[in-house]
């Protein structure tokens, strides 16, 4: 903890002047305790791997229920808050909407000693459904949430009615392209993040080089962490989850998915874990979503593919109407 605090103080001294020039970015603690989510936040208590943990979730109930429940799983650089518009529209159509924050993310606990695995995250997620007495769900996963959703579906197929994967990472095995980076090096890399580096990354992979006001809140959330003394806790879990993504591919098991599945793919996306560590001749071959979407659709029996031309990694933020039309047509 002492090491964490010293590193955090150094980061604030080095980075606060340029970043705080943006009135939109403010320091946020590890649990986002002073950041208000769009819906009421509930918690379940987990005793997991000798840790006492709190896992946050939102339970959005419709005014007129259609009898269906959908669970929205966030990506690595996000939390459940970015599903606000999606959840409101789903609720208006009669769906009950469950939105977890995975352990290590958002308002959930940030354990230091934790073996992150997609199997563990899937089990944690199921415990929320068990507590709420929900037997069947439609599962939608974005980015890293797509890998969680895939593992959840394979692990608990009896609970999944339909599966939607929105620009999921893990459509390819990153180990076959990029060299391994140990957790200590990954942690040091995470500590270097700032509002500027996050924005540069998002402009490169998420959007079309035109920054819009609706993108800012999702930058502010992760950038705010970098300004707080808690940031080393967040950075450590980010390093652990990067290691999980690299070492636990799900792409070899798509053939085992038996539930109706939809892939929503923004074809401009080029996101790939470890691309900067891959040989130059392989980097251009990584994260080719216009090809990966078609390949994965063939691997998942009976699945459907909705390609969103000239859309990046975040369809439900960048091109919401096109995302919504594809989603609702599949689940209505």
TrEMBL record:
Spell out the Pfam families in the cross-references: Abhydrolase_1
Q: Where is the AB hydrolase-1 domain?
A: 69-317
User: What SUPFAM superfamilies does the record point to?
Assistant: alpha/beta-Hydrolases
Q: Which residues form the signal peptide?
A: 1-21
UniProt lineage: Bacteria, Pseudomonadati, Bacteroidota, Flavobacteriia, Flavobacteriales
Q: Which UniProt keywords apply?
A: Signal
InterPro entries in UniProt: AB_hydrolase_1, AB_hydrolase_fold, AB_hydrolase_sf, Epox_hydrolase-like
Please identify the protein, giving its name as recorded.
Answer: Pimeloyl-ACP methyl ester carboxylesterase
Instruction: List the PANTHER family hit by this protein, alphabetically.
Output: HYDROLASE, PUTATIVE (AFU_ORTHOLOGUE AFUA_2G14860)-RELATED (PTHR43798:SF33), MONOACYLGLYCEROL LIPASE (PTHR43798)
């Amino acid at each position: 903890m002492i090491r964490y605090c010293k590193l955090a103080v150094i980061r604030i001294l080095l980075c606060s002047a340029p970043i705080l020039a943006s009135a939109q970015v403010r320091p946020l603690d590890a649990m986002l305790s002073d950041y208000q989510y769009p819906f009421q936040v509930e918690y379940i208590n987990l005793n997991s791997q000798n840790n006492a943990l709190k896992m946050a979730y939102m339970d959005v109930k419709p005014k007129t229920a259609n009898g269906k429940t959908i669970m929205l799983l966030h990506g690595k650089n996000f939390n459940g808050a970015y599903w606000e518009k999606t959840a409101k529209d789903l609720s208006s159509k009669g769906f009950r909407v469950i939105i977890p924050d995975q352990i290590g993310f958002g308002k959930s606990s940030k354990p230091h000693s934790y073996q992150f695995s997609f199997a563990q995250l899937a089990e944690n997620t199921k415990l929320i459904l068990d507590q709420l007495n929900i037997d069947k769900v439609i599962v939608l996963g974005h980015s890293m949430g797509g890998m969680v959703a895939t593992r959840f579906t394979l692990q608990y197929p009896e609970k999944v009615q339909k599966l939607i994967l929105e620009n999921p990472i893990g459509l390819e095995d990153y180990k076959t392209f990029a060299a391994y980076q140990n957790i200590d090096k990954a942690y040091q890399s995470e500590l270097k993040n700032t509002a500027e580096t996050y924005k540069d990354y998002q402009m490169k992979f998420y959007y079309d080089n035109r920054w819009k006001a609706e993108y800012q809140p999702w930058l502010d959330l992760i950038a705010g962490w970098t300004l707080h003394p808690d940031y080393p806790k967040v950075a450590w879990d980010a390093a652990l989850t990067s290691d999980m993504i690299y070492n636990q591919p799900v792409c070899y098991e798509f053939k085992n998915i038996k539930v109706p599945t939809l892939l929503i793919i923004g074809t401009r996306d080029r996101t790939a874990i470890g691309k900067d560590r891959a040989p130059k001749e392989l980097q251009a071959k990584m994260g080719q979503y216009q090809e990966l979407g078609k390949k994965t659709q063939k691997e998942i029996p009976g699945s459907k593919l909705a390609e969103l031309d000239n859309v990046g990694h975040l369809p439900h933020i960048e091109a919401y109407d096109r995302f919504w039309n594809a989603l609702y047509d599949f689940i209505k």
